[in-house]
Amino acid sequence: MSVRLTGMPVEFGVLGPVSAWTGEGARINLRGPRHRAVLARLIVARRRLVPLDVLIDDLWPEAPPPDAAGAIRTFVAALRRELEPGRAPRTPAKLLVTEGPGYALHAEPDSVDAWRFETAVTAAARPNAEKLQEALNLWRGPAYADFPDDLWAHGERSRLSELRLQAVEQLATVRLELGLADMVAADLDAHTAEHPWRENAWRLLALALYQSGRQADALAVVRQAKSMLAGQLGLDPGPALARLEASILRHDPQLLPAQVLAAKVWANATAAYDRAVAADARTRLESTVSILRGLAVTGGSGLRSAREHRVAAVTAAEQLGDPHLTARVIGAYDVPAIWSRVDDPEQAAHIVAAARRALRSLPAGENNATRARLLATIGLETRGVLDPSAAAAAAESVAIARNLNDPNVVVFALNALFMQSFGHCGLAAERDAIGSELIEVSARHGLTTYEVLGHLIRLQSRSALADFTAADRHAEAADALAQQHDLALVGVFTAWYRALRQGVPGAYLKAAALLDNAGMPGLSDGLLPMALLCLQVRHGQTVHLDESANWGPYEPWARPHLLLAQGLHAEAREAAEAIPPPPANHTQEALWALAGLAALRTGDRDLAARAYEALLPAGGELAGAGTGLFTLGPVRDLLAELAAGVA
Q1: Which of 38, 441, 564, 613 has the greatest number of beta carbons closer than 10 A?
Q2: Spelled out in words, what is the top-level CATH class assigned to the domain 178-267?
Q3: Crossing angle of helices 300-319 and 323-331, rounded to 10°
């Protein structure tokens, strides 16, 4: 938050005494009060020209000295020496500049505390408590405190002071929504005492007291506000105070913040459920799965817990001996999945086995939603491997769902079809079509999580097809929906996509930090070193990575490149010969590309030929970009190298 001129960053402060600092926080000597007045007047002008005669009138409104113009020039020269100490003699100033008949301060928007404050308070579409508090912390005293009686500062000082009062009340509003009523009550008690004419402040204080369980105090504050506004200030209280008083008296639930109200509703509803539903009732299992669906999309420990409890719910359903119940419990867990490697293979295998048993127990020819969901579950959980029966299950699920015309089942089945669309390289366009249909169906029927899934699928597929303009749009759409509906995991994928777009190690390191508590080992295991390896190999750089790093499932494809970087060509050739076929998942093009490059560099013609054959259908794509996470560049370039290598 500074400007950088002649090697020295400068920051300005007017929210308190007029001051200036270097970027390291050292105070800059602004000389006397007239020097500070010139600087402050130019800051008020916001980078615009202030004519010399205006400066003279503002600094000496009653009787300017005979050589006022010369005095102003002296002040300006002294300020320039302090603000740009490294400027060579007789070179033009870059910060405090001469423009025609006067001067202007070319400060950047983030170099003046008042400007930063105003931006923070007014620019955010959705106020944020942390940012509002940071903005309020910029204040060191009254705005332009050195010049309380100067007319040129009056309008800006009044405007900033009003904006500060609004920010205090805006922060209180946000904190009330977060359930921090006690904190708000303490802050607003002093605020209303200092500014008793602010009706909104009284209203917020009363609301904070009510939310803190102090109904009598809240009513007393409302009545005190009405009395003070009418009796002492001669103002008629607005209808907001009257409505609040009535709402307090009738204990209106709308006075509680959403978080508090939701917790209260949850506690009451679960207590009523426990009383009304028998302990061994089958409906408990189905209700549990509905809760687990919501838990899964929170990510982190919520996702891990949802997976564990889901297996337990399926096991309990099977033990009850009701195949239809088991089928419903399995199929109800329709949580969108974007990554084609499962987080827990053992749990996935358990679910698939139970789904197959449930299918066998259903009446023959019964093509209903239950069957479609079981088939979709098999397609979803059997991913990352070539299994014709799982691919067939996904395709059959889509056919049944479309025939039923049930959008909830259609999107679930399409998700399974997506997971089975990695049978060979070069299928980005097919996945793009699945993503398009998901968006269309989900948007039409309000299925937000699947609409997000559709955008993420299209982000990946358009990246593979080198259409980053479209991929950017889908990343923005996914982020917007995630913010609106509190879908925390979406930001992990869009952050990694933006790291791909930036193509620098630092961006990947920042994105990797988001994986620490995401609860997705199938995605995170080995991902960072893999991304950095692809980045270095793509740009022809010498590989500088820790061989002992956790390479996860990518170790066989990374090892030849790590050995080559150490000059161990024989060992690299041996490692290349041991490379297995890549799994049928998001990373197969990238892994085939790494295998092909290893083959070229070790002289393994057989591996080069296999890589060429596997990558040929993806000739129009970017290797690895279909992950939405990293890329090794155009497949066609690698194909040309491989063709030459095996000729």
Answers
A1: 38
A2: mainly alpha
A3: 170
> What pLDDT is attached to residue 359?
92
Tell me where in the chain the CATH 1.10.10.10 domain(s) lie: 1-175
Close Cβ partners of 167 (under 8 Å, ≥ 6 residues apart): 117, 121, 132, 135, 136
Q: Kindly tell me the burial class for residue 236, based on how many C-beta atoms sit within 10 Å of its own C-beta (0-12, 13-18, 19 or more).
A: exposed
Pick 195 or 228 by higher pLDDT: 195
Q: How confident is the model at residue 207 (pLDDT cuts 50, 70, 90)?
A: very high
Q: How high is the pLDDT of residue 124?
A: 63
Delimit the CATH 1.25.40.10 region(s) of the chain: 178-267, 282-511
Strand bridging mode 50-51 / 102-105: antiparallel
pLDDT band at 2 (very low <50, low <70, confident <90, very high): very low
Q: How far apart are CA 270 and CA 640, in angstroms?
A: 63
Class assignment of domain 282-511?
A: mainly alpha
Query: Which sign, positive or negative, has the C-alpha torsion 352, 353, 358, 360?
Result: positive
Assign 410 a pLDDT band (cuts: 50, 70, 90).
Answer: very high
The residue ranking higher by pLDDT, 405 or 455, is 455
The backbone region for 552, taken as left when phi is positive above 0, alpha when psi lies in -120 to 50, beta otherwise, is left
Q: What are phi and psi of 553, to 5 degrees?
A: -75, -5
Using alpha carbons, select from 513, 583, 574 the residue that is nearest to residue 552. 583
Residue 586 pLDDT greater than 90, yes or no: yes
As given in the structure block, the two tokens for residue 7 are 């090697």
Span 542-564, pLDDT tens digits = 667 666 788 999 999 999 999 99
